[in-house]
């Protein structure tokens, strides 16, 4: 393990993890966990995860969701191996770079660059999905069209970017308030829907028609909502006692989400099957279930508005995470250096926030214009998100295995903990490889089938730029890597290793 270093700022003014100016150690353990949980919008997940997985798998959706949840817990265990050792602002990018070096850093950097853009596009689409459904229900025509959705995206991104720029304290307060109001309505809808249709457990637990292809496609859909939970590690520099706080969040969040999402999926699936026609016509799944269960049009309209607000919480969360990762990429020369600038007054990476907002907006608007409707547009981006982000999980698991093998030479390691962590890493590797292999051999239906190839080509292009760019610029300007890659040339900007 690397030598222990102080977590205080270096003499050059950089923070641990390479981003200068962040406000160190002001987030408590409980606030980090709450922020990580609210960023995953558990209420909206209860509303959208069932219909997203149902679209892939059908009535045995809970099985794919369970596999995805187990995979998420294993991902948390793998990332925890790093979080106990390093304090960083670049999340998986910084972690993997510490173990696998330059090539790992470039691959993960490309994965997270594309992943955060797709993530922001997906959560903006969530907001647009519910806001468009609400506006349509009150007579605003074309709210689900390309122009109407683009206007919604611009408004919510502008407001959320402003909140994130103000600082993490404002982001946390807003997230807690908006997230708290979303859970009760979906609980009412779920219970009412189950009471109206029954659970039909015989069909939900009938595995005679289940295939591995269907299971993996369902896992891809479910992971779209789980991906990014480990991004709370990007706030390690700004968290008190991060070597304990971050691992707690990494393991706690997926377990809580598993409980909150699997049970509603079982309860909602029969209603979703009965309301397929209404959902296909553009009505949100919660609204369709509410009307079908006899809760009334007014209740359905209100829930659409509430879920739009909670989707807004996810935008705040992932803008906060992603902007830190973008700033870290910029400090190491993988994005324009100016993007790493942190406001001296607000202690937030303003340019990274604006850049990520603009890229997320452009991605979702272009996808919406190409696909033609918000429901398919959201599903395409969500599928793309899974294929773009999971390579970083694969390398994180491999890097964690390397660290665990090194631990065999160190004293005082718990055999049970070591075996559990190693097994979790193996599960992550098998799951990610299985997702990609299945996506190639048994692609999902159009237009989702293009997502794996778009992700592969985009990842290859970004990795190529990251590999060739420094060489070209060093020949033109002399010493690009020496000037722009502090992780390899300046020990003050490396991740801070801490004892377990």
How big is the Rg? 22 Å
| Overall mean confidence score, pLDDT | 82
Task: Walk across the major sheet and give the strand order.
Answer: 1-2
What proportion of the residues is helical, as a percent range?
over 70%
The span between the termini is: 10 Å
Helices and strands: which structural class?
mainly alpha
Tally of individual helices = 19
- Give unreliable regions as ranges: 1-17, 478-500
Q: Give me the strand/helix succession.
A: HHHEHHHHHHHHHHHHHHHHE
Describe the main β-sheet briefly: 2 strands, antiparallel
How big a fraction of the residues is strand? under 5%
Tally of extended strands? Answer: 2
* Oligomeric state, counting identical vs distinct chains: single chain
What is the overall silhouette? globular
Describe the structure.
73% of the residues lie in helices and 1% in strands. The protein has 19 helices and two strands. The chain has helices at 29-39, 42-57, 61-83, 92-137, 146-166, 168-180, 183-197, 201-204, 212-226, 242-274, 276-280, 285-292, 297-331, 350-371, 374-407, 415-441, 451-477, 480-484, 486-489; strands spanning 86-87, 496-497. A two-stranded antiparallel ribbon has the order 1-2. The protein starts with 28 loop residues before the first helix and ends with a strand.
């Amino acid at each position: 393990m690397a030598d222990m270093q102080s977590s205080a700022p270096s003499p050059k003014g950089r923070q641990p993890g390479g981003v200068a100016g962040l406000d160190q150690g002001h987030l408590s353990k409980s606030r980090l966990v709450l922020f990580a949980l609210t960023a995953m919008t558990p209420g909206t997940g209860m509303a959208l995860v069932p219909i997203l997985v149902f679209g892939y798998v059908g009535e045995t959706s809970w099985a794919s969701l369970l596999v995805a949840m187990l995979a998420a817990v294993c991902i948390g265990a793998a990332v925890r191996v790093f979080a106990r050792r390093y304090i960083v602002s670049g999340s998986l990018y910084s972690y993997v770079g510490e173990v696998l070096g330059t090539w790992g850093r470039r691959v993960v950097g490309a994965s997270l660059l594309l992943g955060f853009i797709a993530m922001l596009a997906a959560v903006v689409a969530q907001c647009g999905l519910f806001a468009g459904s609400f506006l349509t229900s009150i007579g605003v025509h074309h709210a689900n069209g390309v122009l109407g959705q683009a206007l919604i995206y611009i408004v919510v991104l502008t407001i959320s970017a402003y909140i994130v720029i103000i600082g993490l304290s404002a982001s946390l307060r807003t997230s807690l308030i908006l997230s708290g109001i979303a859970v009760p309505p979906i609980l009412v809808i779920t219970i009412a829907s189950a009471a109206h249709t029954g659970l039909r457990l015989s069909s939900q637990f009938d595995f005679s028609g289940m295939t591995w292809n269907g299971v993996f496609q369902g896992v891809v859909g479910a992971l779209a909502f789980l991906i990014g939970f480990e991004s709370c590690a990007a706030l390690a520099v700004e968290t008190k006692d991060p070597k304990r706080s971050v691992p707690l969040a990494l393991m706690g969040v997926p377990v809580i989400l598993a409980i909150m999402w699997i049970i509603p999926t079982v309860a909602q699936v029969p209603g979703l099957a009965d309301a397929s026609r209404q959902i296909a016509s553009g009505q949100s799944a919660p609204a369709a279930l509410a009307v079908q269960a006899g809760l009334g049009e007014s209740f359905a309209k209100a829930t659409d508005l509430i879920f739009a607000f909670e989707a807004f919480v996810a935008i705040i969360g992932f803008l906060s995470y992603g902007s830190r990762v973008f700033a870290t990429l910029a400090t190491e020369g993988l994005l324009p250096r100016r993007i790493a600038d942190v406001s001296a007054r607000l202690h937030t990476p303003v340019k990274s926030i604006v850049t990520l907002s603009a890229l997320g907006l452009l991605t979702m608007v272009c996808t919406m214009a190409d696909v033609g409707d918000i429901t398919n547009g959201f599903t395409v981006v969500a599928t793309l998100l899974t294929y773009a982000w999971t390579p970083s999980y694969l390398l994180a698991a491999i890097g964690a295995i390397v660290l665990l093998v090194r631990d065999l030479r160190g004293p005082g390691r718990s055999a049970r903990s070591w075996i559990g962590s190693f097994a979790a890493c193996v599960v992550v590797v098998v799951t990610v490889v299985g997702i990609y292999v299945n996506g190639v051999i048994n692609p999902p239906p159009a237009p989702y089938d293009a997502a794996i190839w778009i992700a592969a080509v985009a990842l290859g292009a970004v990795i190529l730029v990251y590999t060739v760019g420094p060489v070209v610029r060093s020949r033109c300007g002399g010493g690009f890597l020496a000037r722009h890659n502090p992780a390899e040339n300046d020990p003050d900007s490396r991740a801070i290793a801490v004892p377990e």
